[in-house]
Design brief:
The protein is an alpha+beta fold. It has 18 helices and 31 strands. It is 34% helix and 31% strand.
Length: 620
């Protein structure tokens, strides 16, 4: 029996529905649709062979959910005279299903998404009914097999798994559509300070097109590099140190810019955070490892790179946080500098309720590790990592949409466009402004480079929160003591038990020793192998770890190749030929080329071009 939940202007079907399709790949440009299976909770499984069958079934279902008998002459009047009904359909491979659905619904489809060609939800309007297709993996964050194992699910994994979400949230309508959305809801519920929420809204409302663009320019991700002296060499006895939950660690211990920006001089008042536009002349790196990303040095002349970092420049103008500005001055020599612009914002801790929430999930993750309670551990680990993602998300950005049968990117072109998007972003009542995330990564770089610049020639590899070096040093413990001192300060200031920062003696944000490598070799960032007493470990971006299969560290070489049968990778090809749409899935070979890391990501993750007659590629 179909269960209807009435809302303000719509009605929602509370029966969980899952959709699977069967297809067969013939070639890179040709695939055949072979059937579909739609299961409706408490109603059974319905199957068909063609997309036209599915279209007819959804039309018939639209009458059922409106309580109309299709055989009666007044059925259409009944449907039209009642509120719109929304049915929720959950599926894995939602992007693939969406592309196939374009064959029968191309002009009617609309989406909600932040990723080109990958809907988070897709609405199929049929006869005053909306069938909303959900990408269940964006909510669950794991494969069907992992979900079944973690939650002991039997039968239809999607149906049984979504029952737990419905029990938690009361109805399908109330379930967030992504993991990040679920975490945002938890954070908003925890934060009781109306002052904080009002201040956040005021700060976002103050953003101009220029201010926001400056903050985007000032943002940088994790610092990463390979020491050029050791690149492609096999090195013996390499120590490895990793920060424990680095980003959450700085979120609970550091102060962040929380108020609107105001122009100022760079007076380094500890009650404020600053961002600056600075011009340097005759710049030279002091260190073997290069701090500043070369990709952020486009404005200037005579710029030279090494790896991904700036090696030297005759002149360069950069937009940076105060944290990165101070690191830059320590790691580069320069003939002169000129601060062209400087702005400040008052610095405060994040709300105590949010800090306690982060510490709670860190504590759960730490206490659950190794206990066998896999599902709870994974959930706590994911949440702990998501806090950073929630903080750094660009909520004011170009919009990706689908309408009239085409994908569209609506770019922010001027101040007027920006203000519209900015004000729209405030409707969701955000609890963090974008500038928080900009300083999260900056603070971790500060901790990393305090060590890297001191141990420079001994550091062989570093990536975001990990440093590998050929010398054991007490610099890591000194860094840990500074972190613990910050913890004692914030614990006292916000009345949080200091023990909450160190469950099982593992202090959040502190360096811990990891695998000691008897041998280590790095070709580039995220392309390395090492040998421990337990065997060979290899990491290569784009390759599943269990398919690399190296017998020796020296086996890692540039231009290594894995056949389609060996790689464990698949190429998903979104085909379009006029108004015919199909998706091919083929085993993909893998060649480890000698290209910069950002180019590797582009090649591995694929590219999109939504032009009639042109294939749209996505590598998996």
């Amino acid at each position: 029996m179909v269960k209807i939940v009435k809302r303000h202007r719509t009605q929602e079907v509370d029966n969980i529905m899952s959709l699977k399709i069967q297809t067969r790949t013939i070639s890179r440009t040709e695939a055949v649709f072979e059937g579909w299976e739609l299961e409706v909770e408490d109603e059974g499984v319905f199957r068909g062979e063609t997309l036209e069958d599915l279209k007819r079934y959804l039309l018939a279902m639209s009458y059922v959910v409106h309580g109309a008998d299709v055989s009666e002459p007044w059925a259409d009047f009944v449907v039209a005279g009642t509120p719109c009904v929304i049915c929720h359909i959950y599926a894995y491979d939602a992007a693939v299903i969406f592309h196939w659905l374009r064959n029968v619904y191309n002009l009617e489809l609309s989406v909600f998404t932040n990723t080109w060609a990958h809907p988070i939800t897709a609405d199929i309007p049929v006869n005053n009914t909306i069938f909303r297709l959900h990408d269940v993996e964006r909510l669950v964050g794991k494969s069907a097999e992992e979900w079944a194992n973690d939650e002991n699910l039997t039968g239809n994994v999607i149906i049984e798994g979504m029952k737990k979400y419905r029990e938690k949230y009361g109805s399908l309508y109330n379930i967030p559509i992504t993991q990040a959305g679920e975490l945002r809801r938890k954070c908003k519920k925890a934060i009781k300070s109306k002052k904080w929420m009002a201040q956040t809204a005021e700060t976002i409302k103050s953003y101009t097109y220029k201010t926001y663009r400056d903050l985007v320019l000032a943002f940088a991700g994790g610092t990463m590099g390979v020491n050029e002296y050791y690149k492609r060499m096999k090195i013996r006895n390499v120590h490895s140190f990793d920060m424990s939950s680095a980003y959450p660690g700085v979120m609970v211990t550091r102060k962040f810019p929380v108020t609107p920006w105001e122009p100022c001089g760079y007076d380094r008042d500890e009650n404020y955070r600053y961002y600056l536009v600075v011009k340097f002349e005759n710049v030279r790196a002091k260190t073997i490892n290069k701090f500043f990303p070369f990709a952020k040095c486009k404005d200037g002349r005579g710029q030279r790179d090494e790896g991904l970092g700036l090696k030297s420049a005759d002149e360069v103008t950069i937009t940076v946080t105060d944290v990165d500005f101070e690191i830059f001055k320590k790691t580069y020599s320069y003939e002169s500098l000129e601060i062209l612009e400087c702005y400040r914002s008052r610095a405060e801790y994040l709300p105590a309720e949010l800090i306690r929430l982060i510490l709670g999930d860190y504590g759960k993750k730490t206490n659950l590790k190794g206990t066998g309670r896999i599902s709870e551990y994974r959930k706590a680990k994911v949440d702990c990592n998501l806090y950073y993602g929630v903080a750094v998300t660009k909520t004011i950005t170009d919009e990706i949409s689908f309408g009239r049968g085409e994908w569209h990117r609506d770019e922010i072109l001027d101040e007027k466009d920006f203000i519209i998007r900015r004000d729209d972003s405030l409707k969701s009542k955000p609890f963090l402004s974008y500038q928080i995330g900009v300083w999260v990564t900056a603070y971790v770089r500060d901790i990393m480079w305090e060590i890297i610049q001191k141990l420079d020639r001994y550091v062989v590899y570093y990536d975001t929160d990990c440093i590998k070096c050929v010398k054991f040093s007490d610099e890591f413990e000194q860094a840990n003591e500074k972190i613990r001192e910050r913890i004692r300060k914030v614990a006292e200031d916000l009345n949080i038990p200091v023990d909450d920062f160190s469950p099982k003696g593992r202090t959040i944000g502190c360096f811990e020793r990891e695998d000691f490598a008897l041998e280590f070799k790095a070709l580039d960032i995220k392309r390395y192998a090492y040998r421990t007493e337990s065997g060979i470990v290899a990491k290569i971006t784009g390759m599943p770890n269990d398919h690399i299969n190296l017998q020796d560290v020296d086996d890692l070489k540039p231009y290594m190749q894995w056949s389609a049968e060996e790689s464990g990778r698949y190429l998903i090809i979104y085909n379009r030929n006029g108004n015919n749409f199909s998706v091919s899935k083929l085993p993909a070979e893998f060649t480890m080329g000698d290209y910069p890391e950002f180019e590797a990501f582009r090649l591995i993750m694929g590219w999109y071009k939504d032009t009639t007659g042109t294939n749209i590629f996505r590598g998996l």
